[in-house]
DNA sequence: AACTACATGTAACTAGTTACATGATTTA
DNA sequence: TAAATCATGTAACTAGTTACATGTAGTT
């Protein structure tokens, strides 16, 4: 249900259309909560039905400008302060680790090596994103950077763990 | 589609029934790839239809013993060595971070503090699981421990990051 | 005889994906 | 006037969840 809360979060800093929200998802939230066009438009209709948001204006080409209602603000507040974040449940990189003994030792080492390389690459990519972000400001960029730090640490963890795991295999 | 591969992985070390597979999911794979009873039984039927597994025996109470076919083994091998693991896409703990400025500074700090505590707690829990695991052996336990190390590092990362993020808020 | 564990199956629902469809406005 | 961008909507499908349903075999 968090697409709903992502939308409430975005709209809580000002009204916007589905189209514009989609751009924001792609530009800012892509790494924490991606949304497709069809899912977003559908969700906006459901949220309006539920009274969390409302259409406050219609523009050219059928553009609809949505704003959060009081009920929407309350729901956002509730979700932010009282709902425990979901735990990470599925992790197919780790799932493969359980079956590493089905591979030859070389294949198993290759697998971990690929994960290590990939994480190093993702780390480097994120570092570049951070540089690009330095230019911008505003709250989304500011808090975006706090989230980005998590990402950097995450990729570093994966990289280092894969190296460690590779060494473990040798016994 | 990875439930399918989890099943292939488990069956690749010997035939088993849906019921027994479910126990293994609960005991060993719960943290990397949970499966519900209804999903598992449904998937087994689809996999048999697709020729990846087959019923090799029927026991009391309608028990069906499944075994991997050659096609199933090939699919497992393919998935292990040629399919890139999915990246983590959705992360609602981090999504909330983007909207931390909608809270009062105290609420925001509380949020991060709760995440820190929770991660510390999950870390401690996993450590206990590891102790319990030391007793067992066999490949699932052995590789399970490699995955568990990832989990420990992950919770430590979350704990430390939350502390860091909390300090960031003060400017 | 009652209880527990074994064992499978099905229905209704939610979230998310890809692909298709349509049309209006702005800009080169 | 052609192309790009703006803007929304819908259909078909997949994966996963919760709840319901049913019956058998072994244990106390």
Features:
homodimer, 171 residues, mainly alpha, three-stranded antiparallel beta sheet, DNA-binding
Topology readout:
The structure is a homodimer of 171-residue chains.
Chain A: H1 2-11, E1 16-17, H2 18-29, H3 37-49, E2 53-58, E3 64-68, H4 70-82, H5 92-97, H6 105-135, H7 139-168
Antiparallel strand pairs in A: 1-3, 2-3
Helix pairs in contact in A: 2-3, 6-7
Chain A binds a DNA duplex (28 and 28 nucleotides) through helix 2 and helix 3.
Please tell me about this protein's structure.
The structure is a homodimer of 171-residue chains. The first copy, chain A, has 171 residues and is mainly α. The first copy, chain A, has seven helices and three strands. In chain A, strands 1-3-2 form a three-stranded antiparallel sheet. In chain A, helix 2 packs across helix 3 and helix 6 runs antiparallel to helix 7. Chain A is elongated and about 65 Å long. The model of chain A has no long low-confidence stretch (mean pLDDT 95). The first copy, chain A, binds a DNA duplex (28 and 28 nucleotides) through helix 2 and helix 3.
């Amino acid at each position: 249900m968090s697409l709903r809360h992502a939308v409430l979060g975005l709209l809580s800093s000002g009204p916007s259309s589905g189209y514009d929200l989609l751009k924001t998802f792609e530009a800012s939230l892509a790494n924490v909560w991606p949304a497709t066009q069809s899912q977003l438009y559908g969700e906006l209709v459901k949220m309006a039905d539920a009274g969390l948001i409302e259409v406050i204006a219609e523009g050219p080409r059928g553009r609809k400008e949505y704003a959060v209602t009081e009920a929407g603000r309350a729901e956002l507040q509730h979700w932010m302060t009282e709902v425990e974040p979901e735990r990470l449940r599925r992790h197919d990189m780790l799932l493969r680790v359980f079956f590493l003994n089905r591979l030859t030792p070389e294949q198993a080492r290759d697998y971990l090596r690929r994960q290590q390389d990939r994480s190093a690459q993702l780390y480097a990519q994120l570092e570049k994103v951070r540089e690009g972000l330095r230019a911008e400001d505003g709250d989304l960029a500011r808090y975006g950077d706090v989230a980005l730090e998590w990402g950097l640490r995450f990729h570093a963890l994966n990289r280092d763990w894969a190296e460690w795991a590779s060494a473990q295999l040798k016994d």
